[in-house]
Design a protein that fits this description.
Blueprint (H helix, E strand, L loop, with lengths): L5 H14 L4 E5 L8 E6 L4 E10 L4 E11 H14 L4 E6 L14
Parallel strand pairs: 2-5
Antiparallel strand pairs: 1-5, 2-3, 3-4
Length: 109
């Protein structure tokens, strides 16, 4: 299977978020071709959830899985540790009171 370069996927994702009026910021740019992507959504009540692409063996498919969730400072601390382990990591941060990410929508999975 041919995969999109990370920077292409990120650009398309940011465009979809803008169309849905979901504020988004790239807070860490990783490898433009093959960097992993983490999406963090802050619900503006002190809580946050971070998502990362993983592989579901039972479904034999790549899926978005929750990497961390809880108080936003705790999620941020975990993401800082993740970035130290993987300098090629992209981090996209969203702000949405209902926690929308659009992950899993057509064209984004």
């Amino acid at each position: 299977m041919i995969r999109l370069a990370t920077h292409v996927w990120v650009s398309a994702y940011l465009a979809r978020l803008r169309m849905a009026d979901i504020p988004a910021y790239v807070t860490a740019k990783g490898d433009p071709v093959s960097g992993a992507v983490v999406v963090k959504v802050a619900t503006l009540d002190g809580r946050a959830r971070a998502w990362q692409r993983g592989y579901d063996l039972m479904a034999d498919a790549r899926v978005w899985m929750v990497l961390a969730e809880g108080d936003e400072p705790d999620v941020d601390a975990g993401l800082r540790r993740q970035k130290l382990r993987d300098p090629d990591l992209w981090l996209i941060e969203l702000e949405d009171r209902t926690g929308r990410t659009l992950l899993g929508k057509d064209g984004l999975d």
